[in-house]
Specification:
Structural class: alpha+beta
Radius of gyration: 33 Å
Largest sheet: 5 strands, antiparallel
Shape: globular
Oligomer: single chain
Strand order of the largest sheet: 1-6-10-11-8
Length: 667
């Protein structure tokens, strides 16, 4: 009777502990650990097996499940709890993250099984219940139902177990009074509010990894080219899926964050979430997506993949290594959902936390003036955002074959161009980038999100996301309401309602039509202190020709040096051809890190320079193979890579490509 009562108490506590993990499996595993621990009781009592031996077997089993190839056994076991405290909440039900829970339940149940005191089951249940409360921040039992059940079960055992084993009559009045008092005390304790609750995750410094990631913005054109290819499948609500949020703009491109930590780390984003949020859960099955970015909804709060890392500020999820086809995971995320009325009078932050979201290094005067004219008549940040969205959309068309890029030069062509390629046409990259840059120019904190537009549900309840669904959209941050998406022809179907935007545009009676060609030059910032003398007329004779020849000398010298450098590389075979590719990357402003291998570099630029992949394989074989093999096609591949890189760089880089001296001193 005593053993059955102890097992019942610990089963309730262990099943409750399973709330700290995702799914039903952890509850079944922990309940099994209780039964296994009590099944070891005959070994201790009759076979005289030491409890230390059983403890040793448990630790060896824990190490066997959680071990890594490099870490020592002691460090693996000591790292079990920190890994759990830096995982998602609730934690994914992976073997490594289940080990600390199984070990705790087994050790507590074994201690209760060998003890003879009636207080042992109560102490074991208290340990497991406290562990659950710490692991879930008290969310597993918000109303105290499990606590009440444990108190009643323990008190009932205290009152009746001894009497049943001794064959005495069980009184009714006194046990009922004791149970009533304990129940009332438990309910009052759980109903009292708590302030400054202890959070064990704050004691663990989460590991922050520097993950080598690339922005998926350039892949939008590639995905559009394979529009019918299935990238992933989703079960869940119809919401936009995001791959990455890009906040850092250099004037040439949008850069993704490189520091990522465990999703359960206690760290608030630089700009807090809004007052109204909507939480959703989806199931994702990866198809031909590739890359390292994990599609998600909003800010991730839980993911079923062990090893997934998140950027706390942007909410972007990554999984180190290439995403394999068939990978399946569940994730839960929250999205800011303010009402239209909330945004009408909303403000935007202006402190240090918002500085990175309004940074525009070297903003051309043409774009700054265009942004200023675009918001004429707008008096609130929301009205400015709606006006810029309208200005970017009007007179421009989406074109999947338009040149890629989000530099100032590309945006000027997109907004102001007339006949050149990419004038008034672009992919979602240009529409979103133009909105974000113009918004920052008038003080709106913005970022660009790369993801997928909502997809209708199929007959089987699955949403099939294809390459044609890839898109990008801008977001604006509003105080108290969080990040709000806008739609300058992105097709996300989210954000403020069209009716609200139309009302704003109607109220902006003084808003002008789309600004036309910007001023050719900014006004002078500093007036000269004194009149400047007119230049003297050049003397007659050959002086003008001499003055024209002066700047030509260094240009001709650089051309000659670059030509000689190119000849030397061509004679060097495969190694020289790969060095020519590295020179081209340097000229294109895409210099890779020195520790990156040739195949990894080639994969990064394969979208617009596919010849880099076979050339990188040749370079690796030439560098690490047993003997040098002549490859007559190596130089041809290098020239093709150079041509592909030139097509995607801004015009000002192409203009100085042939005379740039940097390849001469590259080592």
């Amino acid at each position: 009777m005593r053993v059955a009562w102890a097992v019942a108490v610990l089963l309730v506590a262990s099943v409750h502990l399973g709330a700290g993990w995702q799914g039903v499996l952890p509850r079944l595993v922990f309940a099994s650990a209780v039964l296994v621990a009590f099944a070891c009781l005959p070994l201790v009592r009759w076979a005289k097996v030491s409890v230390l031996v059983l403890l040793g077997f448990a630790l060896v089993g824990a190490y066997a499940v959680a071990r890594t190839d490099e870490a020592a056994p002691a460090s693996v076991l000591l790292d079990l709890v920190p890994r759990l405290l830096t995982a998602a909440r609730p934690a994914p039900a992976t073997p490594t993250l289940l080990v600390p829970g199984v070990l705790l339940v087994f050790l507590v149940a074994l201690a209760v099984a060998v003890a003879k005191s009636l207080f042992a089951p109560a102490s074991g249940a208290a340990v497991l219940y406290t562990a659950t409360a710490l692991l879930t921040a008290g969310r597993a039992d918000p109303h105290g139902v499990v606590a009440l059940a444990l108190v009643l079960l323990v008190a009932l055992g205290w009152l009746v177990v001894d009497r049943i084993e001794a064959g005495r009559r069980i009184p009714v009045g006194r046990p009922a009074a004791v149970l009533g008092v304990l129940s009332a005390v438990t309910l009052c304790a759980t109903a009292l509010p708590s302030a400054g609750a202890f959070e064990p995750r704050e004691l663990v410094r989460p590991p922050i990894s520097d993950v080598a990631v690339t922005s998926p913005l350039p892949r939008l054109a590639f995905w559009a080219g394979i529009g019918d290819t299935e990238l992933l499948r989703v079960r869940g609500p119809e919401r936009p899926l995001r791959l990455v949020s890009l906040a850092d703009y250099t004037g040439a491109t949008w850069r993704a964050a490189s520091l990522y930590g465990p999703i359960g780390a206690v760290e608030a984003p630089d700009l807090p979430p809004g007052a109204r949020v909507s939480e959703s859960t989806i199931e994702v099955t990866v198809g031909a997506l590739g890359g390292t970015w994990l599609p998600a909804i909003g800010r991730p709060s839980a993911v079923s993949l062990d090893g997934a890392a998140v950027d706390a500020d942007s909410g972007s999820l990554v999984l180190p290594g290439e995403l394999p086809p068939g990978l399946r995971y569940d994730m839960t995320g929250s999205t800011d959902t303010p009402d239209d009325e909330d945004l009408l009078t909303a403000t935007v932050p202006s402190g240090p936390a918002a500085r990175r979201y309004v940074a525009l290094p070297g903003l051309p005067f043409s774009l700054a003036e265009y942004a200023r004219k675009s918001v004429t008549g707008a008096s609130t940040p929301y009205e400015k955002a709606v006006a810029i969205e309208q200005v970017v959309r009007l007179g421009r068309k989406p074109d999947v074959e338009a040149p890629v890029g989000s530099s100032y030069a590309r945006l000027e062509t997109f907004l102001f161009g007339t006949t050149e390629s990419g004038a008034n046409a672009g992919t979602a990259e240009q529409f979103a980038s133009a909105f974000a840059v113009l918004g920052r120019a008038v003080g709106l904190p913005t970022r660009v999100v790369v993801g997928f537009q909502p997809v209708p549900e199929g007959p089987d309840g699955v949403r099939v996301v294809r390459g044609s669904d890839a898109t990008a959209w801008p977001e604006v941050y509003f105080d108290r309401w969080g990040w709000v998406p806008f739609d300058p022809v992105s097709g996300t179907g989210s954000g403020p309602s069209p009716a609200s935007k139309r009302e704003v545009l109607d109220r902006l009676a003084s808003i002008p039509p789309t600004p036309t060609t910007p001023p050719s030059a900014p006004p002078p910032l500093v007036q000269p202190a004194a009149p400047v003398a007119a230049p003297l007329a050049p003397p007659a004779g050959g002086a003008p020709f001499f003055l024209l020849a002066v700047p030509l000398v260094p240009i001709l010298l650089l051309l000659a040096l670059r030509a000689g450098h190119r000849v030397r590389l061509r004679r060097a075979g495969v190694a020289g051809a790969w060095s020519y590719v590295l020179d081209s990357l340097l000229l294109a402003g895409r210099t890779p890190r020195r520790d990156r291998a040739a195949p990894d570099i080639a994969r990064d630029i394969a979208d617009y320079a596919p010849s880099a992949v076979p050339l990188a394989a040749l370079a690796d074989r030439a560098a690490f193979g047993p003997s040098t093999v002549a490859e007559p096609d190596a130089w041809r591949l290098a020239v093709e890579v150079r041509a592909g890189l030139r097509r995607v760089v801004p015009r000002y880089r192409r203009a100085f490509w042939a005379i740039d001296p940097r390849p001469l001193r590259r080592r």
